[in-house]
Amino acid sequence: MEKFKKIILKILKWTGISLASILFLMFIIPILFPGTISEQVKIFANKHLAGKLDYKKTHLTFFRHFPSLTLSVDDLILYGSKPFQQDTLLTAKEVAVGINLKNLIFNREVKIDEIYVTDAYANVFVNTKGEANYNVYISEPSETPKDNTETGTSIKLDLIKFKNSHIKYVDHAAKILVDAKGLNYTGKGGLSEDIFDLQTNLDIDKVDFSLNRIYYAKQKKLHADLITRINTNALTFVLRKNELKVNDLPLKFTGFASILKDGYNLDIKAASEKTTIREMISALPPQYLDWAKDTKIEGNSDLYFNVKGRFSEPKNLKPRVKVRLLVKNGFISNGKAPVPMNNLNMDLNVDLPSLDTNQLAINLKKLSFDLGPNNNFLAYVSTKGLNEMNVNANIKGAVNLQTLQQTLGLKNIEIRGLMDTNIKANGIFSMDKKLFPKTNGYINLKDGFVKTKYYPNPIQNINLVANVINTDGTFKSLGVNLNPFRFDFEGNPVSVNADLQNTEDLLYKIKTKGVLNVGRIYKVFAKKGLDISGLIIANVSLNGRQSYATTGQYSKLDNKGTLILKNIKATTEYLPKSFYIKEGNFQFENEKMWFRKFNANYGKSDFALNGYLLNTINYFIERKGTLHGKFVMNSNYILVDEFMALKSGDNTNKSIELEYAKEENPKSSGVVIIPKNLDVSLDANAKRVDFKGLDLNHLKGNASVTNGQVYLKNTSFDIIGSRMNMDARYKDLSPLAANYDIALKVQDFNVQRAYKEIDMVRQMATAAKDVKGIVSLDYKLKGDLDKNMSPIYPSLEGGGIVNLRDVEVKNLKMLSAVGDNIGAKAFDNPDMKGVNIETHIKNNLIHIDKFTFKVSALRPTISGTTSFNGLLDLQVRVGLPPGGWIGIPVVVTGTQDNPKIKVFSKKGQGIVDALYNKKSHKLIREERRAAKKTRKEQRQDKEAQEQKAKNAEQQINKDLKKK
């Protein structure tokens, strides 16, 4: 027993010493090595990160991620790579790296083998040009030989762990959004090896996924157990064992993904086999899940998904996506339903090659269900293509809508009526080729009724009889008969009768009559954004043939009636705000739709129109129809700024192009986008027009909108106290660029006022700050506008004449410097009255033609070149009395603020012009001072140019002989 006690005591003693030593080491090692670790991590970060890295403080400890020795960085912020240096890529409460203890103690080397990230937000972004913000890691060139003896920091990962993180991936080039919140991730494996298996455990509380703004997953719970083989040399990921669960829906993945220099290569297959319909519904958007809780759902389902191919924005390559959804023997019933939905079966196949909707193939092989005797539905629909769509469809069914509503347990809407349909179609649909599938069918709705919780009164007495027939697969034989379509809303009956034949040259008979409260109709369906009581009063009869209008046979048209709009709100995808039509009285008279009274507001701007539109029938019939018209427009105030596409406004239904442009350029206003389907002329009268702080008063002129361009002719307005005449053309190129031509004539405007009030004058004529008096201008310019609708000066081309009618020039630095060098103080106050100065602008340079003026008894003549950046290369000849026959040559170089004078010299120092890319709207090279060259260098340049010309001539002769 004594020996046993001694052994136990020794064991306890050494165990205690060992534990104490370990604890002592845990405390002492962070104290002994903090400088080594922190310094080497900083060196590593500076060497290998292209993005800026900031953090609050660091900790070296065993106790945050026991038992690993970790260097923890608190409140980390990592900024993106070019061109996103100002945008945050990653923030985290803590980023910790595990340090290999053996290497640290014995080799004093920092080897990182674990990474921990806590409470992180990663904002990964790819813009429309394919530029990404995540390229922050600078790898060593592959051809550089490894030095195994080098000491310092290296990464050899065995563990990655994310806790409570939020990762957002937005790819504007591919139109993809992934937003994962509450992400917890653990990845284990030999991450430092060239080829290794990564074991992954992933849980996400809420994940959203959308493609082209269509959400395929919204607030879904995700769990994944994955084993992925990763080849770091080829950046390839092979999915070996991959089990995924979206809410209650299990999915299994196989395949691979490869990261390429210009994109990625995919071949991934996913399947959810032998699941239930309820499990399938759990993957639907959240608004459907509450419905599913109170509904009895039975049946089986299978889902198959495959994405295969390369994605490369520069090479315009995109992968192919295939989806198949099977539903078998479905059963749906709500407790209050008189009968259940039985025999629900569906077989849906979707094929999208190259993510190209023009190649989209949808094959609904079967969709069928029944709601009791004589109450069933069966559909088969197959389409291929979009612009030219091959269609094969057979839809047949008779459904009691009230029974359908009760069976599905729809809570927010009450519907009634008997709907009967039988449609068969087979053939090609193409607007361009005037093809329409051979069709025969009808849709009948009797005693329809719609009421929602959003509005107390229903839309009722809905009756619709619609017949469609096409016998030969062309527009010529297509006939649509709508007789009648009637409904009542709040005591107001509305009826539409239509008979349409031969849509190749449409023969139409349309009658519509009734009063429709648009605002309240929208409230019935809880549509947001239309909060006003819009009213439409219609009594219209349209009778004629499409070609009667296009060929000028107006006497054969019988279009008549009135359409009245009041307090209507309208939006377009290219404007940030809504139009409010206070009142619109329209009258149809054969070929014309007259605007008898039209008053509208857009933001602070107001418009009153009188005139007519032509081709209104064609516009609504043809996909590429153009509206023609002529109007008189009167306005009290127009603020051009609020029409700029990226300005803030109440319109939430903007195009994806605008949304992406705004997200990528949050501080930009964009340019004004012009509709492409208008051919309209306007006699415009506006009391005041504001554009970027510039006031134009009493504007009158002729404006026209044609093919997406605006033309102004014989337009005049008051500006800075003078009347200006202008002809102009404007065209938007994208939401962020536009170009224009402009011809200006203005008599007698005040130079100082123009310099103070007009930015363009300050940029183009900096010398005007030293000029007082009255001048006239006759000038033509063309150029581009940037993403804030400001002139891009290197893009400017043009020229014209400035007449100095009555001016005073004092202490102009360039002239004063010339006077100081030749001993003529009179150059401080020259006589320039009546002088014409002709200039030409190109590539950010202003070329000045010779002009002469008086300085006391002297007659100076100036010509040469200046730049918008203030560089000078001017030749001055100071004519001496009598008559200026004998002159002193002077060269002025340097800058406007610091001119350099050479007397008795004719040779200046040239200015190399700027280079501007018209496609990208970017300045490639700024103008700069030409390099000084010796006579030998000049002679060599001349000989090289002559030889180049001689070689070109010889090549032309060779080409001619070959021919």
Automatic annotation (TrEMBL):
Repeat as a keyword of this entry, yes or no, is: no
The UniProt regions of compositional bias labelled Basic and acidic residues, in chain numbering, are 937-963
Keywords (A to Z) from UniProt: Membrane, Transmembrane, Transmembrane helix
Superkingdom to which the source organism belongs: Bacteria
InterPro entries assigned to the protein according to its UniProt record, in alphabetical order = AsmA-related (IPR052894)
One of its GO biological process terms is:
regulation of protein targeting to membrane
Q: Which GO terms describe its cellular component?
A: plasma membrane
The transmembrane segments are: 12-33
Region of interest (Disordered), ranges: 923-963
User: Does Nucleotidyltransferase show up as a keyword for this record?
Assistant: no
State what protein this is by name. AsmA protein
Please name the source species: Chryseobacterium polytrichastri
